[in-house]
Amino acid sequence: MVTLPSDKEAFIAHYDQSKDHLPGYNLAWLNETRAKNIALFNDIGLPSAKTELWKFTSLNPLKKQAFSAPETSELAANDELPRLFDAAISIRLVFIDGKYSETLSDSSLPTGVTMASLAAVLDSGNCDLDQTRLSRPRAEEQPLVALNTALMADGYILSIAKDVSVEKTIEILHLGSGKAESTHHTRNIISVGSGSKATIVEHNTEHGENVYFSNAATDISINENATLHHYRVQESNKSAFLISSTEVEVGKGATYDSFLLNTGARLARSDINVSLAAENSACHLNGTYMGTDDQHCDITTRVDHKTPHTTCDEVIKGVLSGNARGVFQGKIIVHEQAQKTVGNQSHRAMLLSDRAEVDAKPELEIFADDVICSHGCTSGQIDEDALFYLRSRGLSQEQAQALLVNAFLADAVEAVQNEDLKDLFLVRISDWLENNPNKPA
Amino acid sequence: MLEIKNLHAEVDGKAILKGIDLNINKGEVHAIMGPNGSGKSTLANVLAGRDDYEVTEGGILFDGKDISELEPEERAGEGIFLAFQYPVEIPGVTNTTFLKEALNAQRRYRGEEELDGMEFVKMIRGKTKELGIKDDMLKRAVNVGFSGGEKKRNDILQMAVLNPKLAVLDETDSGLDIDALKVVAEGVNKLRAENNAILVITHYQRLLNYIVPDQVHVLSNGKIRRSGGKELALELEEKGYADYSGEAA
After folding, report:
1. What are the distances in angstroms from CA A271 to CA A183, A292, A330, A433, B81?
2. pTM of the model
3. CA distance B75 to B164
4. What is the ipTM of this complex?
5. Which helix (H) or strand (E) holds A392?
6. pLDDT digits over B57-76, tens only?
7. Is B124 helix (H, G, I), strand (E, B) or coil?
8. Does B82 touch chain A (CB under 8 A)?
9. What is the DSSP letter of A52?
10. Most buried residue among A96, A172, A262, A310 by CB atoms closer than 10 A?
11. What mean pLDDT is reported for chain A?
């Protein structure tokens, strides 16, 4: 087992050692892409406090951590795997330590859905993936995506055909095996055909409390009049480093509807960039995060309104206790030609301890003159008047606090239209409250 | 039932109550009237056990038990209810959830069996009917988007459900028009019984036309300056608090 520290040089050394046996190593265009990206990563390095997009989130704890190269860690078939939804209403795909497990995944996909593992596709040599699917706008702002592109070893390529309404929820389990301090770079590609509708739920969790570093990148394209509901339940252990970057291109009349529930990881950073470049495209970027102890949760979003008549709304709510820290950075850019844009953003955080901290940076850049845009950011303590009101009716301090925090977070979940998912999120919230008694400092 | 003895209390180190003596027996309705800043609301908050209000001398006996060190929820469990001057909005929590949790918390405190969902629904339907409150109010978030009158009626509904031994109404009339005032007073009167008592705190006499007190006390500068029957309220309405304000300065 190779032990890798995780500063820039270590990642580059890791690339040098593994480039000749990464999936698709015999594809010239891919080798070129990987080489270009590791060079870019080498130029920029890991984000630091001087990097504008990362000024509230330090990767120093990650740099100090040593990781092993990923090993094959197939779980025994009888190991119990978490499943969010009943098999009758969902199909589940399983990734263990970033590697697709065909044996643990459900075999029959709904009609109109195809899925292939990235490793298999690249190894087959005749994939129709081209470089454009793997290149990002503003690549120079995304060194970790460059690192991902250089080192990507697996992931999923999920396609929904035209005019299909996929009834079953597609559940994607990203499970840490708990067997090694591993690092993995998964690359996922989702495309939704025009007029189609699908729900994808990604679930990050693991067996055990091992440290690991997941650096995921997901590229999504949603074609004309299609809708993708993309939900994430991030509940990794409190030692994990979980970094993900999602790039979404929304087509004409199409909708990207996303909800992120984050309770896990020592450090979680979720970037979501949405491009609304076709008329009547829309996105909903909602979520809740809950942090305790030394957890750090960062949600950074960017929405580009590039044409007239595009809409985005964003409601993020967070609750922090202990020494936890939350970061919200939300950028909405309304380009000059994007008249009649509607963009509404709200971020609210509740701090349950004197040591918890939240940093919020809403940014609106508006170059068009006929738009409706709003943003609001608040952070504060629990409402003392409300607390006393509830206690004067007989609820204990803890009960009253739990009720108020629950209500605060549940409000954000209202945006979720799928009732099963709404219930799931609400249960996660009350479980968190039950297991993390928030002692006011 | 309630015996307040030489009660001194301060807020942020400032003495507000300066020796209050007051006895309320079962079945009685008392009114405390006084000018602004006399300590009326402080007394209500001290009785309910609000954190920032510190009792520095004297005590409060409730059914013979000293409650001055009890937490607000323990006092609620003992049977004290405070109807707020400004009922608080609790977004995201429905009235039903809130009432059920509150009632069962109190029942647990008293060692009584909790009500299950069915029993609770049956009980609460009876109460809303009795008070003429529409059932859809139960599904709404506590006080959110309620008019001033609805908020006060909601407090009265809570009172009916929790069935306290002592209800303290803190300026319940503030912000109410005459129709809303009548409705709220009617609700309170329905809950009057031999075994409970009511303490009405108010600046104006008009509420006392509808909730008729057995005794009226004038509070000024942290002390009860005068006590009398319901006619005292009328006298105050006529003459104002001028006779007492000298000491309030």
Report:
1. 19, 21, 10, 26, 49
2. 0.86
3. 10
4. 0.94
5. none
6. 999 999 999 999 999 999 99
7. helix
8. yes
9. G
10. A310
11. 91
